[in-house]
Every structure is written in C-alpha cells, then in structure tokens.
C-alpha cells in the first residue's frame, strides 16, 4: 500500500512534533518567569537551543533526503521528519521570542524562519496535490508520450494537407512550426502560449491553436463533397493535437508549481542560517 | 502469413535495398527492438501498430492511442491493398503486388530524421532554466553574515560611534528589544552597559550612574561582601530589553528565598520575622511608636499592633469619638459636624499625612480666651513664659485705664478705645466670626522701667495669677495638654508633645491609591476616646482585599507592593565602587575593596577591618605591624610618625631617626 510522507511510520514524526509543540506550549503557559517572557529566561534559552538545533538539522535533512540510497533511513522518513519537525519549529521559535518583536536582527531571523516554513507548507500542498492531478491529466502516459503523439499528429497533418490548397497547407504547416511550448519562468508557471500562425500572409497569435482551428472550421463550412471529408479529417486531427497541447501546457504548469517554491525555500534557508548565526552572535556579544 | 519486407534506404543518388521475410500470424511495427519492423526513430513509440491477416487481406491496426495516415487520410485500422501508401511519422510503408512465393510485399522507406524530438525543442521544466539556486543561496548567506556580524563587529576596532556615524550597518541592529523608558536614551549606546564583548553587563556599569542606590541590609553586620544569595547582581532583579515598562522583578520567590527562614541563610538579626506569603504566612504588623524618656528625649519603640499595652504617650489629649460624633460638636457659634479630612490631609503621593497644627486645625474652636469679661481676647499659643508676660502687660494696662477713669471703669478696657484701622484688618468672609484681637494689639507702647506702685503690682499679680491658673489648670491649656506642676517662676509645665509620624517605616502605604475607601474602615477613630489609642490597622484589615502573589479572589500583591528592596537607611551600593585613576575599587571609607566589596590591601590580599591579612573564610593569616593615625599617616607602636621604610619622621616628612637605630 502506498503511504505518503505524511503518514510515514504511522505518523511517528507527526506525533513527535505534536509532543514537542504541546509540551512547549504547556511549559510556556505554566512557567512564571521573573521577567517578561523572552528569549533570555531559562525557558527562552531552552526553546531557543531546541529551535536552533532543529533549524540546522532540518536544513541538513533537506539536503540529506536527496541522497536516495546512501546512509540510514528512507527518503520518505527524512521528508516526514523534515515536514513535521519544521512545522513544530514554528511554535517553538514563536514561544522562544516571548512575542517580543522589533526591528532588529533577532526578529529578522524569525521572519526568515517563517518564510522558510510557510514556503515549505506550500511545498507540502504542491506535493500532495499536483502529482496526482498530473496523473489524472495524462492518464498514465508520460509527457514524452504525449509529445510523441503530437509529433505523430504533426506528421499526419502534413500528409493530410498534401493535396490541399496552398493557403490551408500554409496555415497548417505554420501552425505546426510556430507552436511554442514552455519557455521561461512565467511561461511555464502561468502556461503562457506564444504560438502563432500565418494566415493570409500575416503572422497572427495562435493562442490555444484557436486561430488556425477557426480558419480550418471556416474552410470546412464552405467545403463540399470529397473536399469536405478531407478537410473534416484535418479539423479532427488538428483538434486532437490542440487538446494534447493543452494537456502538455497544464502539465508543465503544474510541474513548475511543484518546483518553483524550492527556488525560494533553499536560498531563504541559507539566509535564515546566516541570520541565526548573527542572532546568536548578537545575543552573546552584548550579553 | 508470409511477409516480405523490402527496406529501401537512400544512399546519395542510389538506393540500397534489403529484403527480409517474416513468417507468423502478425508483424509488429515500432521503435522497440522486439518489433518485427523496427523504425529507429526516437519519435516513434516502442510499439506503434500491428500487421495482421484478416480473411485474405492484410490489415494494419494502430496500437492504443496511435494512428497513421493511409493515402493521406488518417487511419487507425485499415485494410491494405497494393498501391496503398502508409505514413508513420514520415516513414513510408508502400504496399506492393506480391512477387515470388511471398504472400505480401511491403516496401519500407525509413527517413533519416534530422529534427530533434519535439520536446527537446522547448524548455518544459524549470530546472532547464538553470536558476542559480546555489549561488543565490551563498550570496544571501554571506551578505547577511557581513551586514549583521562582520561589518558591525569592525566597530570593536574602529569604535562603535564611528560605525554609527558612518553610513554602514552598525551594532544597533543587535538591540534585543526596547529598553525601559528611563534607559531609552542609551539605546544607541550599547557599550555604556555592555562594556566588554561576550561578558554579561556588570554591576559596575549600572553603578556608574546609580551610585546612590541603597543596600538591602547592613552589609557590615551581615557579611563583609554584598552577596545577596538570590540577587547578587543588579541583573538578577533588573532585566533590560523587555520593553518600555518592565524593569523591576516583583515575584514573591525572590524575597521568600531568604525571608522564609533568615536563620538558615545566616542573615537573622532577630529583628525580622519570617514570611512566605502575604495572605498565608506574614507576621502581624508592628508599629514604630515614639516614646518619651525621662530626660525628655524621644525614642522609637517597636510593638505589636495588637498589644494591649500599646498606648501612645504623646502628652496630648484628644478624644476622637467626641470630635467625630455624628451629631456634631459645639463650635464657637454653632454645632459643627467634623470630618476626618478637616484635620488629616495626606502629602502629595499619599505616603505621609500633613501635620495637624493647633493654629490650622484646633484654634477655630479652641480659642485661648482668658477672661470672661473680655471673651474676644485670646492669648497666643506658645511658651508659658511668654504667655505670662503678655498677661502681665494686659492687666497692667487695665490697671492704668482704671486709674485714669476712676473706679469701676473696667468696661473702658473694652477694645473700642484702641481702634484698628480698617485697612489693617484682615478681610472677613461673610458668615465668619469677627477677627480675634490679640491682647498685644491693645497694649500701647510704654516707656520701660517706669516704677509701678505696690498697689499696681498687687493688682496685676492677682489678676495674672487668676487668669493663668484658669488657663493652665481649668479651662484652656489643660483641655489638650498634659500639664504637671513644677517648682519655679512658672508653676506649670506643659509636657512636650510629639506625635508618631511614621508608624510603619518598614512598609510603604499610599493613601492616594486607597482614596475611595472610608478612613474609619481602617482607622477606628470613631470608637477612640483617648489620644493614646493607636489607630493603626493590623494585617487582617489589609488581607480583606490583598492576598499573596497567587491569591484567589484577592488583589494579588507581592512583597514589593509594600516593601522596598533598596532600604533608604542602608549604605549606598554604589559607594563601594568608587574607582580611582588606577582602576582600584574604593568603598565609602576610602578602603580598597575587591569586586565583591571585601576589604583588600594595596596588593589585592584580603584583609579584615584592622588591616590583618585573612583568608577567604575570614581567618587571620598574619598580623601587620602597621598602624595609622586619624589622618591616615603611618605610625609606629608608640604613635610616632614613620615613613614607608619605618624611619621616624617629623610632620614635614624629614627623617629624624633611621629605622632600626633604636
């Protein structure tokens, strides 16, 4: 049976994280420090030490879980620990602050930590949502399979239009040649379509292959007899190709969404570790 | 089925032809190596379609989801006849008439593909964009390390002020929370408290400003050093960077640490009783009451507030109950209903009451009249000798008046003879009584030394004695004062009056914060018939509202709600730490001390009060043969001045006799 990282080892790390959070909250609630709650009371130091160790360890886990086979433990186990203990860190570090925030390096480190954790939450959401959605979309085919199908359809369309008039040939072949897939960050993330087509000697946008399809449908409505049949075949094939392209674009979009937070998560984690070092340095240099 | 496949491959201008014969039910077409007809083109699926025989006819069936073109028409399952042309991704399959013993003949032309697979022509994954995650990560890491650690730390070399003035990141970003309001001005001046990096802020820095802060107890009696066990450093109680308001530690545990058992911590002086909680475990209140000794000096006496013998002898008579009667008390002109605040008004802050005085609070009713014939005349409130002198003057004047106007003219001593100009009169409020006239106002200036006749002398003495006896013994002075007979010119002695001002000197109580409570709720003055009654409440009165730190249904009050840690009467903490040019710590008496306040000699060795070397437990190590006179000069055993080397010297420092010559 498939178990996700969320239910790994019957939620071992989930319960560990819950234990950490609940015990921190309970101790914080019953503790009566001799001053306003802050990072400098005994509980503040304890929570701060746990938090700092967690940050370093979780950052190492994030790296460690990419080594699929080496060392002990499973990748799923590492991810599970990373996710749950990272979430617990939010509570531990917040209690460590004693809710004292200001414009200083200390709060800066806290804010960076929150950014890392919340981007991680987005990662969890993406990993939980998009892979199955992508499978649903592609019906157990790989993206390569779909690309091959498109290529096949392209080749078929060239054959199908072999005897058509030159304008139809031009529209179909330019639509194929000028189909654009993927591209830069925004193109992938928002499935932008820069495809174009040559109609009547002019290059016009062919977003969603719609312009070319409109041309063919219009031609179909005027065609009669045998021509009607052959144009109909072209329209059907072109339509299948259009649907396949839509699937490809959606898949690229979802895959990019699953990956894009990492481009944020990792650099901010590095920033967090630097700010954490600065935080600890500042606390002890002006002890 | 017997199928001949003729592979045709263009080689420049010529064509290379290979024939392969297959036997079997079906022939498969695809890229896979297990296919009957293999198309080595990455774009072609591993298994694309299948050739099979249906009836006598050859049929091409595309695999699941696949299709092909036949004679320029899309097809998925088509019968193949000679002359048909099938196109699979540009590769041509031409069906030819059979030759030889082959049942079917297909000519296959594999086109060499020069274009990349479609997918390779696009960037379809983010990682293909080569986002520099690693470089950005390290740049951010080192940027923050530089801005938040390295650059500000340069201030330790160049001076923090230099860094703060320069447009570069400085140490202010390290500020770990707002300072207390009273320290806010130091927010940009970290080193004023954090003098040494990585060393916790020291008391020395606190005491630089707070020199006059007092010790909690007598450090000389209770220990040579100022180790408070719980609070040995300022920071133990006073924590900074917790916002604008919080600065003083107020928890009960801090005090209870020692005060639950002063004996156990070796700080018992016998004066204080143990306590742990105001509601649960706090001794009843003791008052500090003034008491007059036989020599008429006053001393403070500590007594339990519930003690039956508690009676204040202030030498004043005052029945609170009569004055506070709800029906009122007879005033000069009418019945007056008095309130506590008529006499008792607190100072600003409410900690102390303003003094009650005869002139302000009593005199409006208690007029010092002395002669029933002249009820408007009063004597001044003051010393008896002065009072008698003035009576003599008044009656002498009266005698003169009688001499001038014949016998029985006493009425002519009425005040109309001496008019006071209206401008000089104090303004009189409507409804108030007329101004009293002092008898001194009525005595005209007389040349001194003019002899009085014996007759006059007798008259005056007689009248003065009558009036004075009346005043002291019967109706005026004795109403309020304790008066005892005495030998001498004045036979009455008014006993000195002193009222206890601070009953609870160990605690602070603000009347201002209790202003909404009635006075008699705590001070049962309305039942007090004597001035000696001590009307201070006991702890039970406070406990009806106040509880300890964790009290339920009571106002939670910790020790410092009433008691101060820094006791006003103790030595200043900071005075231990005057620092001379060489960095030596000096106490209030000019002795060298170490950081704990222990006496040390100029070499840093521990010494006792007499200058003897001691160890850390206070045991004598070695006696020093050094004495000093009152001015701090070195002297020998005989009290002669000597210098550092032991030579006898005179006051100017000249050597009189070298050391060891005797």
Brief write-up:
The complex is a heterodimer of chains A (287) and B (662). Chain A is an all-alpha fold and 287 residues long.
Describe it.
The complex is a heterodimer of chains A (287) and B (662). Chain A has 287 residues and is mainly α. Chain A has two domains: 163 residues, no CATH class; 115 residues, no CATH class. A two-stranded antiparallel ribbon of chain A has the order 1-2. In chain A, helix 1 packs parallel to helix 3, helix 2 runs antiparallel to helix 3 and helix 4 packs antiparallel against helix 9. Chain B is α+β, with helices and mostly antiparallel strands and 662 residues long. Among the domains of chain B are: 119 residues, Sandwich (Tumour Suppressor Smad4); 110 residues, no CATH class. Chain B is built from twelve helices and 31 strands. In chain B, strands 2-1-12-11-10-7-8 form a seven-stranded mixed β-sheet, with no helix packed on it. Chain B has a five-stranded mixed β-sheet with strand order 4-3-5-6-9, with no helix packed on it. In chain B, strand 30 and strand 31 form a beta hairpin. In chain B, helix 9 packs across helix 10. Chains A and B meet through helix 4, helix 5, helix 9 and helix 10 of A and helix 1 of B.
